[in-house]
Amino acid sequence: MKRLVLVLFVISATLLHAADIIITRSSTKINAIIEEVGTTSIKYRTTDNPKGPLVVLETNQIATIIYGNGEVQTFEEEPVVEQPATPAPQTMSPLPQTMSPYPQTNYPSAYPQNNYGMGGYQFVDYKAIEQHRKDSIKDAQKAAKKAAFKAKVDAIPRKHFLLANYTYTFGNKSHNVGLTYGWCHVAGVYVNATLGVSGFHYKTDGFVGLDDWSSYYYSDRDLTNTHTTQRISFNTGLMVRLGCPLYFMGGVGYCYHTLAYKATNGDWMKVRNGSESNNAMTYQVGLLADIKGFSLMASFGGYVYEKHQLEVSIGIGCAINGKKGGKK
């Protein structure tokens, strides 16, 4: 029994001797077994759990350590170095310029958006500045596209066309000749005059009826089968450049059409106004090609009165370059 008490006393004395006391700067006492003391921290285990995990404590949180052997170690409190105040950012500085293929705009350094009385300065509305920059880029893009389109249009020469054309009318099987003049840049106009040449006779000597062939001077027995389809017409319309070397043509006009028969004595008798002799409206649609100074035209059209006469036209002529840009 005495030996057991002696063993317990020795163990207790050993534990009491090995226990260290850590006093923090907040006056907290910690019973610990210190394993390592570093320059900035210490590592220890608590006496309640001597085989437990190591606990790390910064030395700037420790005031004193009383070791189990009676040694005392005091830690001086590190002086607090005051950091200089960071100056406030300058709000008047402009945004940095970005790498852009378009010209930069000189933005104002500040916008009067919020008047908070900050030493006489106003806050910069960077969103407004950024939007202003984007709008400037868009405006520059539009201006560049507009300038490129204008340069492309200005490079197109102004064209003058002069053609001699032949027209064949299917209904009365008549032949006609005429002249066409046109001017076109991107768009333009043209005029055309056509004259019938099928047995053309400039003067008629009398009139013959339409239905009963009664005549003021002649009866139908005095007429031959020789007849002429007299015609004169004028057209005007628009030309549009489809792309080198094609141009579109389309227009309307006026036509005076008459039919005359030759009498046995050589006189020409004009059919009275009606389905065979009348005023009519003409129309024409076609294409014109400019090939190295020569112009070729092909079109179809007709004229309309009580009957509809279809006709086709072809033409050949010259094309002359004017000044570029559509200027005279």
Q: What's the gist of this structure?
A:
This protein is mainly β and 328 residues long. The protein has two helices and 16 strands.
Write a concise keyword list for the protein shown above.
2 helices; eight-stranded antiparallel barrel; Porin; mainly beta; 328 residues
Describe this structure as you would to a colleague.
With 328 residues, the protein is mainly β. Helix content is 14%, strand content 47%. It has two helices and 16 strands. The N and C termini lie far apart (136 Å). About 9% of the residues have low confidence.
What fold name goes in the CATH topology slot of the largest domain?
Porin
Strand adjacency order, main sheet: 7-8-9-11-12-14-15-16
CATH class of the largest domain: Mainly Beta
- Order of helical and strand elements: HEEEEEEHEEEEEEEEEE
Roughly what fraction of the amino acids lie in strands? Answer: over 45%
What percentage of residues falls in helices of 4 or more residues? Answer: 10-25%
Helix tally equals 2
Average predicted local confidence, pLDDT: 77
- Count of the separate structural domains: 2
Show unreliable segments.
Answer: 97-118, 210-218
Separation, N- and C-terminal Cα atoms: 136 Å
Give the oligomer, counting copies of the same chain as homo and different chains as hetero. single chain
Q: Compute the number of strand runs.
A: 16
Radius of gyration, in Å, reads 56 Å
- Shape category: rod-shaped
CATH architecture descriptor of the largest domain:
Beta Barrel
